[in-house]
Amino acid sequence: MLGGVGFWQIVERYDRALTKEELLNPGARRKPSAASGPLNYLLIGSDERPRQTSDDQRSDTIIIAHVPKGMDRAYLVSVPRDLLVQIPSAPNGYPGGTDKINAAFQAGGTDQGGTQLLSATLTNLTGLRFDGAALINFEGFKKVVDLLGGVRMCVDTEVRSIHTNAVFTPGCHEMNGAQALDFARQRYGLPGGDYDRQRHQQQLLRAIMERAGAADVVGNPVKLDQVLRAAGSALTVDTNGVPVESLAFSLRGLRSDQISGVQLPSYPEEGYGISYVRLDPSGDGLFAALRENRVREWAEANPRWVNRL
Prior knowledge:
Elements: H1 4-17, E1 19-20, E2 39-46, E3 61-67, E4 74-78, E5 84-87, E6 97-100, H2 103-107, H3 111-126, E7 132-137, H4 138-147, E8 151-155, E9 159-160, E10 167-168, E11 171-175, H5 177-185, H6 194-214, H7 221-233, E12 235-238, H8 244-250, E13 259-263, E14 266-271, E15 274-279, H9 283-291, H10 295-301, E16 306-307
Parallel strand pairs: 1-12, 2-7, 4-13
Antiparallel strand pairs: 2-3, 3-4, 5-6, 7-12, 8-11, 9-10, 13-16, 14-15
């Protein structure tokens, strides 16, 4: 167990390593409050390195991380990147329109503009306002995984990577950073397609948290510094005015086995040779549960949409 002084020293070191920007649109931002839950954080991931402009960059991963009021669980709600939505106009002159939700990140014009437009799009869709956001560079997380000594990932269906030609066989395997990221990017050749990819991304985030708790990082100052610096370089955050130390203290007891993955109720659809994803009518029930701190009850009543991680 970490002593009080040790905990705050670690948090302070991590806080210094983070890049902080205003990632949330003002209309998508909840009034700042103490980190006491319920909390809804927007996680936006890309396997590309961050750039100042994003003319050809779209968000590969969109996750709403929900922590109930009791702060004893966390739910990762993956939003399909091909979900057909109405994107509002943006300050850079983008007029708005109907498109796949991941196009909002590109239409915003820059990393910060893209996250703000994406958050506004999600607020319009869900009625949810966010307590913070993080832009995750998954390429940067490869180094974090390697510094932790790898992660344990379980494969249900054999799949061959379209990026490296590597074959991932059924069973649980220890993977290094490159392997884990490669596996989590795959969607072709899997029974659930992009839905399986979303579940694997949720699995990777949980596996990183699990290994961070199990690895002897805290007791090794050199490794701790390396991990914190690597994690900081892979994240750009918007804490909505809540100090990082307050958020870290509130979440200090959360374990990896208390994290559940949720698939947004939706279904794929083809039109004019283009693949889209449409929101299932039951999706509105999930959005209401997120707004009203009833996700635990919703998940128990809708097990088909809860992922096994």
